[in-house]
Amino acid sequence: MNEHRPRIAVHKFASCDGCQLALLNAGEAFLELTRLADIVHFAEAGWYEPAAAVDIAFVEGSISTPEDVERIRAVRASARHLVTIGACATAGGLQALRNGLTQSADWLAAVYASPEYVRSLPDSQPVAAHVAVDVELWGCPVTTEQVLAATGDLLRDIAPAILAEPVCVQCKQRGLACVLVSRGEPCLGPVTRGGCGALCPAVGRACYGCFGPAGLPNTAALARRFEDLGLRREDIARRFLFITPAAQPFRDASRRYQDPERE
After folding, report:
1. Cα 16 to Cα 5: distance, rounded to the nearest angstrom
2. In degrees rounded to 5, what are phi and psi of residue 245?
3. From CA 143, how far away is CA 123, in angstroms rounded?
4. Which of 79, 135, 146, 194 could be stapled to 57 by a disulfide with Cβ–Cβ 3.0 to 4.6 Å?
5. Are residues 60 and 118 in the same domain?
6. Sheet order of strands, 7-12 included
């Protein structure tokens, strides 16, 4: 291995592996990356050296166990740049739907055959809750283009540009009819960061907020529109918490509808 070449690691925490696949699915572009930098840790692809010092550490997954906390601190200490990839790492992910639930012995026994071996944190937490993060790449999953573009920028010591415009812009660019207006679907597109290419609206489905909050999201106005559509308060709260529950604007919007005393 050439010690003068940049070094990259890809670490997995609580996740489905979909964001790691965004790299593997790059095909020839991934092979080109291996010619520009040494990938020293990426267990899913066959490289295993988790304690290696690296220039870029990509992290997929949320922090869910005490062991995760120790491990993410070690990753941070070994990396020049730490980049979180995907909704789990940036905002807790789907597993954060358990946040706030009481993990009683009966509940654990109903799920796990040997609950005595289960050690987990009370909440599924984003990586930034424990260590400093240099770049956040949102998505469920992230796209190959996102990860490769960020990698290229970081290898050139350039701060990656993070898209802030909402999904609605991408709908208009593709000439798609607004599912919120035309179909009455409770779409999060007006307050969600673009990047997916309006994947769900393109097939007539409402956006679920996979790419996190857009710049200056007006969640209060959108929530009122959901009320006009007939959604119950608890359904509105769940809508904002579904994919990126730890994202501040979405969490705040959900809390307004979870608390019956707040309007």
Report:
1. 30
2. -70, -25
3. 27
4. 79
5. yes
6. 38-42, 7-12, 54-60, 79-85, 135-137
